[in-house]
Amino acid sequence: MGSEKSNRFRAALVQLRAGRVVEENLISAEAMIREAAKGGADYIQTPENTALMELEPELVRRQVQPEPESRPLSLFRALAKELRVWLHIGSLGVQQQDGRIANRSYLLAPDGSVVARYDKLHMFDVDLPDDETYRESDNFSPGNKAVLADLSPAGVPAKLGMTICYDLRFAALYRALAMAGANMVAIPAAFTKQTGEAHWHVLLRARAIETGTFVFAATQGGLHENGRWTYGHSLIVSPWGEILAEAGADPCVIFAEIDLAHVTEARARIPALTHGRAFDIEFAPLADAAAERQAS
């Protein structure tokens, strides 16, 4: 019984509907993080853009700070220490020395220290139907490295692959994290309503199944002050692709009991991580293919 319990902890995802004023967003986030801790969570994750949902570059720049001066980061570090939880802030805008802004995720230990930082690799620069356009690179500069972090919620040793939102569409990143030792993957997000309805559940379950990892995806949900709709439906997914907990469209906290022994079980049943092979691509010219058909 003791060894079984040593693999288990309680996870919580905080789903928000952040607006355009940082201080108001921090009040909402703090209240829901406290709710998650009161519910017994050992690991708590918030969405991408926890402290600010804004599209206008100038308005973003006015409200972000360098990391040492970041009011949101200071608050969340103090909160992690007070509540004695592993607190994963999905992302904050952080001003860098070159004046550009990083979309940065933070993993905070129960003593309030910063265990890991991850800057979002892939920028969401897209033109969707119905004149819905996003240029994330107008506000943020991309990171240049993947991050794997050690943590121990409820004393359970774990390795967390850190990613953010649009990263979800790049499967090779998740395989690389799993091959490096990740047994959990974080995908805090602010998925649009349009793309979320089409792809959110499929992609999250696929990443879990492909890698045999637990997937934690806290997200924004609903109509924001800046006029943007986000999809919501924060999800916790098992290594077998089962949805363990799901939110709706509104702000809330969801919980799931996590047993990391299920990672080993899933990978033993489908050992795809050990079956990968190097390969070349052969291009068959169309003219040759047509000639073969005629000859046959």
Give the tags:
296 residues, alpha/beta, Nitrilase/N-carbamoyl-D-aminoacid amidohydrolase, seven-stranded mixed β-sheet, six-stranded mixed β-sheet, 30% helix, globular
How would you describe the overall organization of this protein?
- There is one protein chain.
- By secondary structure, the protein is of the alpha/beta class.
- It has a single domain (2-295), classed as Nitrilase/N-carbamoyl-D-aminoacid amidohydrolase (4-Layer Sandwich), CATH 3.60.110.
- The protein is built from 8 helices and 17 strands.
- The chain has helices at residues 2-5, 22-38, 57-63, 71-83, 171-179, 193-211, 261-269, 286-295, and strands at 8-15, 43-45, 65-66, 86-95, 101-108, 114-119, 125-128, 132-135, 147-151, 158-162, 184-186, 214-217, 221-223, 229-231, 235-237, 243-246, 252-259.
- Strands 1, 2, 3, 4, 5, 6 and 17 form a 7-stranded mixed beta sheet that branches. A 6-stranded mixed beta sheet has the order 9-10-11-12-15-16, with helices on one face.
- Helix 2 (22-38) runs parallel beside helix 4.
- The termini are far apart.
Can you describe this structure in just a few lines?
By secondary structure, the protein is α/β, with parallel strands linked by helices. Helices cover 30% and strands 28% of the residues. The chain has one domain (2-295): Carbon-nitrogen hydrolase (Nitrilase/N-carbamoyl-D-aminoacid amidohydrolase, 4-Layer Sandwich), CATH 3.60.110.10.
Topology:
Layout (H helix, E strand, L loop, with lengths): L1 H4 L2 E8 L6 H17 L4 E3 L11 H7 L1 E2 L4 H13 L2 E10 L5 E8 L5 E6 L5 E4 L3 E4 L11 E5 L6 E5 L8 H9 L4 E3 L6 H19 L2 E4 L3 E3 L5 E3 L3 E3 L5 E4 L5 E8 L1 H9 L16 H10 L1
Parallel strand pairs: 1-2, 2-4, 3-4, 10-11, 11-12
Antiparallel strand pairs: 1-17, 4-5, 5-6, 7-8, 9-10, 12-15, 13-14, 15-16
